[in-house]
């Protein structure tokens, strides 16, 4: 009797997970080929047993064919550095926006806000002491942001 193992695989070219039931031998073959994409591409059509396998093989081949027609552009090292810096700036801006949204959602103004924002909560912030449990929780939330 052939043992069956469920496998959830990521088809990299399609950036999509599929869930199929395959034999342990097929799992080993997929691993040896380097993933389900490569396994499907390397397996000849006459060895494909299922319609689903044939469908995914054809779909992946079509995607690779379309990728092959695309023009490839290489960046200079200076352009790559500039793009990495822009990406880093975008990530930092997104992180700051998420942090501000969390602060608004939870109603925490923080210690370093301007005086205009903290005038209404002056009593609250002075009541909180350095090292109090409330301050520690908020600092941990900021550290995890």
TrEMBL record:
Keyword Hydrolase: no
One GO CC term, this protein: mitochondrial large ribosomal subunit
Keywords: Ribonucleoprotein, Ribosomal protein
InterPro entries hit by this protein: Ribosomal_bL28 (IPR026569), Ribosomal_bL28/bL31-like_sf (IPR034704), Ribosomal_bL28_sf (IPR037147)
MF terms (GO), sorted A to Z: structural constituent of ribosome
Compositional bias of kind Basic and acidic residues: 126-139
Region (Disordered): 107-145
Superkingdom of origin organism: Eukaryota
Record-stated family: Belongs to the bacterial ribosomal protein bL28 family.
PANTHER family per UniProt: 39S RIBOSOMAL PROTEIN L28, MITOCHONDRIAL (PTHR13528), LARGE RIBOSOMAL SUBUNIT PROTEIN BL28M (PTHR13528:SF2)
Name of the protein this chain belongs to: 54S ribosomal L24, mitochondrial
Classification lineage: Eukaryota, Viridiplantae, Streptophyta, Embryophyta, Tracheophyta
């Amino acid at each position: 009797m052939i043992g069956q193992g469920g496998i959830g695989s990521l088809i990299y070219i399609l950036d999509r997970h599929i869930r199929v039931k395959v034999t342990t031998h097929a799992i080993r073959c997929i691993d040896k080929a380097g993933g389900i994409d490569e396994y499907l591409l390397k397996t000849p059509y006459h060895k494909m047993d299922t319609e689903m396998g044939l469908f995914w093989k054809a779909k992946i081949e079509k995607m690779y064919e379309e990728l092959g027609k695309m023009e490839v552009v290489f960046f200079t090292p200076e352009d790559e550095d500039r793009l990495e810096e822009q990406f880093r700036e975008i990530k930092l801006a997104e992180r700051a926006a998420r942090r501000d949204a969390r602060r608004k959602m939870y109603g925490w103004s923080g210690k370093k806000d301007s005086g205009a924002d903290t005038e209404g909560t002056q009593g609250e912030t002075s009541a909180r002491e350095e090292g109090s449990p409330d301050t520690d929780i908020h600092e941990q939330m900021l550290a995890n942001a």
